[in-house]
Amino acid sequence: MNKEVRVRFAPSPTGGLHLGGVRTALFNYLFAKKHHGKFILRVEDTDQTRFVEGAEQYIVDCLEWCGISPDESPQKPGAFGPYRQSERKPSYRQYAEQLVASGYAYYAFDTPEELTAKRAAEPNFLYGQKSRMQMRNSLTLTQSEVSELLAQNAPHVIRIKMPADEQVTFADMIRGVVSFDTNLVDDKVLLKADGMPTYHLAVVVDDKAMEISHIFRGEEWLPSAPIHILLWKYLGWANEMPAWAHLPLILKPDGNGKLSKRDGDRLGFPVYAMNWTDPKTGDLTKGFKELGFMPEAFINLLALLGWNDGTDKEIFSLEELKASFSVERISKAGAKFDFEKAKWFNHEWIKQLPVGRLKLAVSSLLKQNGMEANEEKLAEIIELVKDRCTLLPDFVAQTAYFFTAPTEFDSAAVKPKWNTDKAIFFEEFANTLAIELTALELEASFKALAENKGLKPGEVMLPLRIMLVGGKFGPGVFDIVKLLGKEETQNRIAKGIAEFNS
Ligand code: GLU
Could you tell me if 216 and 247 are in contact, meaning their C-beta atoms sit under 8 angstroms apart? Predict the structure, then answer.
């Protein structure tokens, strides 16, 4: 590639960030990094009616949490600003006017009432080749009528004039050659009555101004591609047009259509990257982060929604993804989202991440639950239980007994077979507990003592666990003994004996 690779993630700041959006950002990021290029965040905020306070900062925070922060953004401008579409407002009209002057677009003066009436009369009404000559626009009005309306500042929009009987054909990096019949595309508005561009005009002007080299975006934008391609051509920029890649959709778990936030609510899993609170209604939608996903797992699972490296490998760090990512291996077919699989990724990551990487998130969760430990103890606890945790909050249940002695015991598992021999054995084990031994040595001495007392080690292992943790769970019981320490273990054994004797 001779031109510098410059790709952009171009969300509209309208609410929570859907995992499909993060996947688009991720693929842009990976492509940029693979080709030593730039990953840009551009905020597409020209639709004032959909603008939501706080949504831009939220998007920035989500990207940061995922570890895919942009090289250029509204917060970190480079030489290609502005990075918010609305701030480029003064420049769009000139391009729209240029298109009118060259015959590729026209002024339309139809009032909203006129359009509503037209749509009511003709339910399938499309403003385009078949209908444009019946409407009030610069194609049907005389030159002087148009000049007069413009001089009076009459409200108007500028529409693209879709050509008749043309095929717009381009090579999509994922889909191969794609063709559109211009007869089936309507005359989209390019500049709105408020002077703001629509998405179609803004996206082309901005991609040109920011020297974007490749466009990776969701498949839902494919129908817009012919309009954008014609605009690149009509504005005289055909030679600088970026390459296009339309990413496969992320589908509902049953494969039946695009995954929406509503599906997540209905099926009980998150769809947004992070918690999102709607500033108008105050409604909170839970995100992957707050549900206890590690960002390493989140980007890993997203990368595999529509891409693989051609092998069975599933666990990829961001560094590995940067190295192995290739457009050729992005699939055309939609990718089904499977929440169980998403959790599997998180479990694998929790198991393999170093304790240092988990410590901050786990300690703050534990603190929220009134559980505090010093650095060293916390590290040991995490190391001991991390294989048992799928989501970060699992650390709370899996470690609670290290902080507070159990008050409830699974007695049903012990009492029926409890007897005085066992009580005597446990008293002696507690009294002679040599905490300086390793967990393995402790286990050996425990078993030796049991045999010495004529008990099978298997019969006393479970009671010990239940005395220490309350139930039949947790890591190796002698690892627990070591972490609890001598006095605490002795206290719990004493309490356990009393419990089972009663
Ligand atoms: N603003 C569009 C969105 O919200 C961007 C589409 C594109 O990348 O061209 O996704």
Answer: yes
Domain with 189 in it: what CATH number?
3.90.800.10
- How remote is the CA of residue 380 from the centroid of ligand 1, in Å? 46
Are 422 and 281 within one domain?
Answer: no
Q: Say how far apart CA 60 and CA 73 lie, in whole Å.
A: 9
On whether both 382 and 427 belong to a single domain, the answer is no
471 and 379 belong to one structural domain:
no
State the catalytic residue, choosing from 261, 286, 336, 415. Answer: 261
Residue ranges of the chain whose pLDDT lies below 70:
1-2
With a Cβ cut-off of 6 Å, ligand 1 is lined by 10-12, 44, 199, 203, 217, 221
Question: What is the distance, to the nearest Å, from the Cα of residue 212 to the centroid of all Cα atoms in its chain?
Answer: 23
The closest residue, in CA terms, to atom 5 on ligand 1 is: 10
Please tell me whether residues 93 and 140 are part of one structural domain. Answer: yes
pLDDT tens string 306-334: 999 999 999 999 999 999 999 999 999 99
Q: 272 CA distance to ligand 1 centroid (A)? A: 17
Q: Would residue 261 show up in a list of annotated catalytic residues for this protein?
A: yes
Candidate of 19, 203, 224 to mutate for ligand 1, largest count of ligand atoms within 8 Å of Cβ: 203
Task: With respect to residue 95, please indicate whether it lies within any of the assigned structural domains.
Answer: yes
From CA 116, how far away is CA 134, in angstroms rounded? Answer: 15
Test site for ligand 1: of 6, 12, 216, most ligand atoms within 8 A of the Cβ? 12
| Domain count for the chain | 4
Long-range contact pairs involving 180-187 (C-beta distance under 8 Å, separation at least 24): 180/223, 180/225, 180/226, 182/226, 182/230, 183/129, 185/128, 185/226, 185/227, 186/126, 186/127, 186/128, 186/162, 187/127, 187/128, 187/129, 187/132, 187/159, 187/160, 187/161, 187/162
Q: Mind listing the pLDDT tens digit for each residue in 361-412?
A: 999 999 999 998 899 999 999 999 999 999 999 999 999 999 999 999 999 9
**Which residue is closest in CA terms to ligand 1's atom 10?**
11
